[in-house]
Amino acid sequence: LRRALKAQLNQRKRLLMLGGVSLIVSLGIVQTLFFLNLRVMQVEDQWLSFARLMLNQTVSLLIVVEFARIFLRYRKLARGRAESVRDVLSLSLAVVEAKMADYRLGRWATVMLMAQSIISVYLNRAVPPAGWEAFGVRAGLIVAVYGLIGLLFWRQYRRKLRPERERLKATLDQLDHAVE
After folding, report:
1. CA distance linking residue 170 with residue 92, whole number of Å
2. What pTM did the predictor assign?
3. Using CA atoms, how far apart are residues 46 and 61, in angstroms rounded to an integer?
4. Region for residue 33 given its phi and psi (left: phi exceeds 0; alpha: psi -120 to 50; beta: otherwise)
């Protein structure tokens, strides 16, 4: 059981490290491109540039803050002591429930990022000159990509994490009843 718990924690650590590195790289690239684009002559109103800047900066800040919270929650779980079988099972259950909380948050983050992408497309290419068809195609592609991501989240949550949580809870209940 301890090896299984250690494997779970190591997998979560690898995913968090990969997510952190990709977050830093992608935010760096997006911020660099955004500020380089500000040096180009703007054909739009200043308020539109400011709105786009505030939208991107707010979403970027929220992503960084939430990722830091997830990492701190992982560190708390990784420091947990597992000296008995019950402690190992309790810690495994806590890890699974933390993953489930991340997936529930990911569901809302996916919707937020999809809305931010659609608003950004709208702000980048005003609809009247380009036409509603071009905007509709871009918005449809954004919804399709984020919809696929949401379906993958849902599948992992329903098919893997929920049964694992139920199995661990049942095992803990059996252990508690065996002790009594």
Report:
1. 13
2. 0.67
3. 22
4. alpha
Burial zone of 180 (CB within 10 Å; 0-12 exposed, 13-18 middle, 19+ buried): exposed
Task: Provide the token pair at 47.
Answer: 């308020």
Query: pLDDT tens digits for the chain (180 residues)?
Result: 667 777 777 777 777 777 777 777 777 776 776 666 666 656 567 677 777 777 777 887 888 888 888 888 877 777 776 677 777 788 888 888 888 888 888 888 888 888 888 887 777 665 666 677 777 888 888 899 888 988 888 888 899 889 989 998 998 888 888 766
Alpha-carbon separation of residue 162 from 16, 17, 151, 154 (angstroms): 21, 24, 15, 11
Sign of the alpha-carbon torsion through 101, 19, 139, 47? positive
Reference 70, options 101, 116, 43, 34; nearest CA is 101
Any idea what DSSP says for residue 79? Answer: T
- Can you read off the two tokens belonging to residue 180? 């009594």
Alpha helices in the chain (DSSP H): 2-38, 46-78, 85-124, 127-130, 132-156, 162-179
